[in-house]
Each structure stands twice: as C-alpha cells, then as structure tokens.
Inverse folding.
C-alpha cells in the first residue's frame, strides 16, 4: 500500500521539476513547461507520459551536463486533461522563457494554436493534435512530427488491405470505428470516409461519450453489424472497457486495432487475458531493450535521482513516447544552437530547430535508439515528417511489433491536409508562407 | 414519409431479428441493474437524512480501490472484503464525527455542500493511498457468456442481477423487520419526532452511512470487475442520477425499477435511433426519459407525494 503516498506525491512533484524551476529563465538554462495530468480519470496515462519527458531531461543534465552546456529546467503544470486548465497553464508559464510546449491534449492544442504566432512559442504535438497543422505554410508554429491521426488512419487501412490479401479485397468489407466523442476521437473520420468511398469498404461510426465506462449499446451494434475489422480511437477507461466488451461478444482480438493512444500497457493489463491478440498502432518501438533506455535506468533511477516510484514506467509505451517528445525538443535545441551560435535558444530559434529537425538513422543509433524509430525530417511546408506507422500486438505480457513500418497514403492525406489548412487560413485571414 | 416512420420506429425495428432485440432488452435491463446498485447508496442516505450525497460515486470508487488494493497486496479475497467493509464502517464513523454531528438542523443545501467537499477529499485521499494506476479487480465473478436460443448473455451482468436482487431483499428485511430498520424509517419520517422517542440520531447516521458504504462496495465490485478500478469509476454516479429522478430519491424499489427503465430505454434508443443521429445519445436520453416521467410524477415513480400545509 502506498501509505507514504503523500510524501511520494510531494517528492514526485519536486523530482519531476528536476532542477527547481526558476521564476524566469536564467541566462544559462533552457526552460520547458510540462503540461501534465497526474491526477483525475486520465492519470494512468498521464503519469508515464510526463515521466518520459522529465526522465529524459533529467538524464541529459546528469549524463551530458545539458544540451551544449546549457542545463535544462522544467516545471510541471497539472491540467487534469482539461482544456481550460491547460490554457491557464499556458498563460501562466509562457512568460517564463517558454520556447516550446507539449500540450498533451488535442483539445488544448486547438486552443493554443491561435496564440503561438504572437507568443513565439512552438507547439509540439507528437502523435496527436490538429492534423492539418502539418502544413507549415499556414501553421508555422505548430509541429505534428512524426505522424498524424490522418496518416495513421490511412496506414491502418493499408494494413487491413494487406491482411485481407490486397487493397482490392477491401471492397465490400465492413470496418467499424469506435471513437471517443471528442475532437480527438473525430480526427480520423474524414480520412476513413474518403478512403471508404475510394476503396469500397463500408464504414460504421460509433461514438462513445466520456469517459466510456458503459459501452454496452456500442457493442450490441457491433454484434448486429458484424464488421470484419474494428478500429478503436479511445483514451483512458474507454480502451479497457472496449477490449473487455469485444471479448464478451466474441469479437476476434486480432481484428481490432487501436489508435496509438489505445495501445499502452495501461489499456491492456487491467483486462487480463481478454486483450491477448489485440493490436494497436505506434510510431516507435516498445520495451526498454535499447542502450539509451538502459542508460536512463542506470544514470537516473539506479543512482536514486529519478521520480520516486517512476522506475516501473521506464520502457512502457507511453513513457517511451514521452521520451520521444523530449528528444525532439532537445534535438531541435541542439540544431538551433549550432545554427545561431547561441547557448540558450529563444522562441524563434527553437521554431527553426523544429522546422529543420533531421534525425537520421545514424543519429537515432548515436542516441542509443537504433531501430527505435524511422528517420524524422521536417521541412518548411511539412511539419509532420515522414509519418510511418507500425502495428504492435499484445501477447498477454508485452507489446510486440508485428508489422514493418507502413508508409501512410501521402497521396490521399497530404491533399486533405492542404485543403483543410487552406480553409483555416482563409477563415482566419492568414497569408500562407512561401516555402 | 417512409423514412420518417422508419426513424420513429427504429427502436422497435431492431426486433426484426428477435434474438438481437432480446439481446438489447436483456443487456439494457442488466445494465440498468448496474445503475441501480449505485443509485441504492444515494437512496439509503437520502431516506435517513434527507441529504443528497454528492460523494456517493466517489464512495463507490473508494470502496473498490480499497478492495482491489488489498487483493493486490496478496490478501485473500474474503479477508480483503472484510477489511474493506471495516474501512467503510470506520469511514461512516469519521463522517458522522467530523461532519454530520456539526450540521444537525442545518439547511439541506449546507449538507449537500458538505458532501461535495467530502467527494473531493475522498477522491484525492484514495489516489494518495493507492496511486492512480488502473487496478484489475478479480473477485471470482465469472466472465464470458452463454447463448440460450442464440441470445448472448454475459455472466457478469447476470451475476450483478442476482447480487442486486439479494441486496434489495436484504435491505427490505433490514428496514422492515429489524429494530434498527424501524428506527431508520422513523428518522427518515421525522427527525424531531424520532429524537423525542429516544432514537439516537448519530447512531442512525453511522449505520446508514456504513450500509451505504457497503452498498457502494457491492456496486464498485461489479463495476470494477467490468472495467478495472480507476478514477473515472466515480463518474458512474452520473448514470445513477436519472435512475433517482425516475424512481424517487427515497424508494429502494424505485431505484431498482428506475434502473431497469433507464437501462432498457437508453439501450433501445442508442441502438435504434443512435445510428440516425451520430450515436452517443444514451447518456442524455436517460435524462430526457427521466424528465418525461418527472412531468407526470414529480416525486418519481415511487417517491412520496409531498403535501405541505401553507
């Protein structure tokens, strides 16, 4: 029992801030605000995500003395996965030397995008957020690196096509999308509908209200429709309930594919054996069998300098993804330092670093993450990068990658992005940049 | 015109496949039972003190958290259940000692506000003690399904139905056949009159909060077995509210019948009308259904008609 929970909570709060964050950025430190949700219904997902970022920053300081000799400092602000609180966090912390934020919520991202330009703060949304913000001509301050929901949706259809024996075999197939009834959950609908018209499969849309504790009616409809495949776009308890209900009605687990936010240990472990065979998208490897992650364990946790109780999350899917956020930010910072010949980078320089992010296979290997992710390369017009997606499968104990990297249907997704971004630009009187 | 009729009759048309129609009905009724389990806790406290306990949903979570936590520590299930019951009784004593006794004769809104504070405290306290991770709760309730006549029925929901029946029977006996039960009813009818005949109000409150805590444990166990124990479990109280509106705040049979009507109604609506209007209508439909009943019976199906002299 965590009877020492209160102490732990306080200790976590202090440790998570690493070096106590200054009220304003010191001349020799780089400041990062972290929007976290360590409390509330989505805390089981929020904790490993936040720890992944904080642990990597902590590691960089301990192992390398920071980035280019500049120590990293960070400060957590609890959003509870609540958009209003997220905006409050942003307003409170943006003046402290913030150059980039990780909103960790599609709802918060939508609210922050209009402010990014005037505040000179980049918004880095790794695997979530507003997909059409990938068009850097309209959204110069927003980065959806390394892939988006629309890319993922198209990659899922490609995967399903391959499983069925070819894309031509999708005609007449039934695919159901069970989605969180929110901006996040609705993101893939447009892509899936377009592909349904193009490829001839029948798409059934089933919304589930927050928090998704009760889904009986949804799964009764699955019983009636008998889809060939189910795509799950859930978050938090919605995922566990969906997996359990799927088992209850006898739906084959290996024909159910979750979005990458429905594919963490937190989604499958509580359901016991029910989740065996369940698949989910991802854009990075699972597990801790990488030199960098092993070193983080050694340098941060074995040395007793980690977040109390945080070692159990190291190597989990959401922790790994949090680490990816931190790597993108520090690599962008490193590139900006080199380009502008500065130590501490400002908002515009950080934005340049993100826009010119180029993590090659060799660089991933140098970082100690060989084979962990595909190379990532942003451009002025394309803030998404390449966008390849993997499929992972739960074997009852761990996630295993069961596909090669699947390239999204860029020929479908990119025009959708550009069209949607152009509409946003028109509505908001934005003149797109020339790239 | 045909399409309009097709829409209106959608919940009925699902019976074109009678097996599927029956599945919707059975699932709806059994889901309703799960709501009733939560609603019962509200009813018990309201009956005895006229207090709407905003913390009841969190109480469900807190009970389930303790049970899952104890089982997670390797404590045998029967002992873990007993320990959790002990905690719920202790909690009732603490609530009476720290809150209720100081609020005797206060306005109902004051009592209600106190339970809001209690809800926030209890939620944070549970999180501090047991952490935020989702916990698996396995108390041996059979999982899986069986299919008589091609109609799929879940063991878990059937178990919930049986447990609810046993619980209601037990509560009915407790309220009607025991001395304490009669005292509880006396307090519910009139605090002052009950005090004047020597009934100890504080003891009664402890008993009723303890019983409500045990009912919360039953509800939390059923819901926890279904979805794991996590903090969104407290939001299940929102599912109990339309049940209370419909069944009446002070009727145990009302909580059960209300639950069945809400469960059945929302499932028929979601499966029938949902596909026409984008889905996810069951939550608000439950409230609409309850409000329709409210128009005709403001006190709820089984609530007592309020007659006040002016």
């Amino acid at each position: 029992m965590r009877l020492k929970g209160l102490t732990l909570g306080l200790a976590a709060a202090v440790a998570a801030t690493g070096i106590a964050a200054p009220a304003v950025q010191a001349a020799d430190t780089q400041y990062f605000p972290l929007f976290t949700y360590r409390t509330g219904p989505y805390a089981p997902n929020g904790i490993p995500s936040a720890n992944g970022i904080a642990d990597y920053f902590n590691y960089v300081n301990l192992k390398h003395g920071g980035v280019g000799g500049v120590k990293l400092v960070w400060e957590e602000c609890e959003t509870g996965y609540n958009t209003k609180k997220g905006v409050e966090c942003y307003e409170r912390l943006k003046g402290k030397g913030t150059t980039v934020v990780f909103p960790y919520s599609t709802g918060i991202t939508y609210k922050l995008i209009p402010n990014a330009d005037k505040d000179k703060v980049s918004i880095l949304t790794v695997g979530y957020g507003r997909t059409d913000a990938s068009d850097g001509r309209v959204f110069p301050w927003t980065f959806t690196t390394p892939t988006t929901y629309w890319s993922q949706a198209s990659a899922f259809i490609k995967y399903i096509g391959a499983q069925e024996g070819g894309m031509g075999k999708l005609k007449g197939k039934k695919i159901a999308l069970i989605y969180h009834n929110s901006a996040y959950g609705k993101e893939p609908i447009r892509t899936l509908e377009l592909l349904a018209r193009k490829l001839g499969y029948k798409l059934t849309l089933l919304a589930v209200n927050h928090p998704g504790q009760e889904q009986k009616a949804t799964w009764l409809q699955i019983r009636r429709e008998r889809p060939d495949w189910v795509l799950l776009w859930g978050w938090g308890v919605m995922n566990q309930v969906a997996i359990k209900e799927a088992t209850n009605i006898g739906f084959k687990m290996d024909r159910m594919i979750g979005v990458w936010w429905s594919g963490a240990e937190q989604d499958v472990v509580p359901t016991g054996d029910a989740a065996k065979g369940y698949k989910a998208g991802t854009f990075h490897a699972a597990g801790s069998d990488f030199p960098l992650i092993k070193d983080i364990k050694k340098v941060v946790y074995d040395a007793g300098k980690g977040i109390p109780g945080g070692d159990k999350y190291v190597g989990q899917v959401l922790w790994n993804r949090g680490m990816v956020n931190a790597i993108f930010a520090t690599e962008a910072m490193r590139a900006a330092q080199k380009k502008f010949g500065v130590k501490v980078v400002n908002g515009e320089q950080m934005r340049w670093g993100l826009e010119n992010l180029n993590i090659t296979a060799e660089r991933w290997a140098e970082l100690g993450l060989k084979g962990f992710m595909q190379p990532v390369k942003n451009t002025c017009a394309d803030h998404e990068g390449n966008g390849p997606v993997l499929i992972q499968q739960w074997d009852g104990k761990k996630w295993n990658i069961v596909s090669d990297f699947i390239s999204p249907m860029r020929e479908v997704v990119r025009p959708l992005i550009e069209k949607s971004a152009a509409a946003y630009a028109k509505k908001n009187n934005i003149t797109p940049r020339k790239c | 015109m045909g399409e309009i009729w097709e829409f209106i009759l959608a919940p009925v048309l699902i019976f074109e496949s009678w097996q599927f129609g029956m599945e919707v009905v059975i699932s709806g009724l059994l889901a309703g039972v799960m709501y009733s389990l939560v609603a019962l806790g509200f009813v018990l406290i309201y009956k005895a003190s006229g207090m709407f306990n905003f913390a009841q949903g969190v109480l469900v979570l807190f009970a389930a958290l303790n049970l899952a936590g104890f089982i997670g520590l390797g404590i045998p299930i029967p002992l873990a259940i007993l320990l959790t019951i002990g905690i719920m009784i202790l909690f009732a004593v603490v609530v009476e000692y720290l809150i209720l006794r100081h609020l005797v004769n206060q306005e109902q809104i004051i009592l209600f506000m106190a339970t809001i504070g209690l809800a926030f405290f209890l939620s944070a306290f549970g999180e501090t003690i047991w952490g935020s991770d989702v916990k698996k709760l396995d108390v041996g309730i059979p999982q899986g399904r069986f299919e008589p006549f091609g109609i799929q029925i879940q063991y878990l929901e059937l178990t919930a139905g049986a447990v609810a029946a046993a619980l209601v029977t037990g509560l009915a006996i407790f309220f009607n056949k025991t001395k304490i039960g009669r005292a509880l009813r006396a307090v519910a009818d009139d605090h002052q009159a009950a005090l004047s005949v020597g009934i100890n109000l504080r003891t009664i409150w402890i008993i009723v909060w303890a019983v409500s805590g045990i009912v919360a444990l039953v509800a939390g166990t059923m819901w926890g077995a279904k979805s794991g124990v996590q903090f969104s479990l407290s939001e299940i109280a929102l599912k109990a509210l339309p049940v209370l509106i419909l069944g009446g705040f002070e009727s145990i049979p009302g909580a059960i019948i209300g639950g069945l009507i809400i469960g059945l109604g929302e499932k028929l609506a979601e499966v029938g009308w949902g596909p026409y209007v984008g889905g996810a209508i069951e939550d608000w439909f439950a409230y609409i259904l309850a409000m329709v009943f409210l128009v005709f019976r403001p006190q709820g199906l089984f609530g007592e008609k309020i007659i006040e002299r002016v």
Notes: Chain A has two domains: 5-147+286-386+416-427, 149-282. The domain at 149-282 of chain A is CATH 3.40.50.2300 (Rossmann fold). Chain A is about 45% helix and 15% strand.
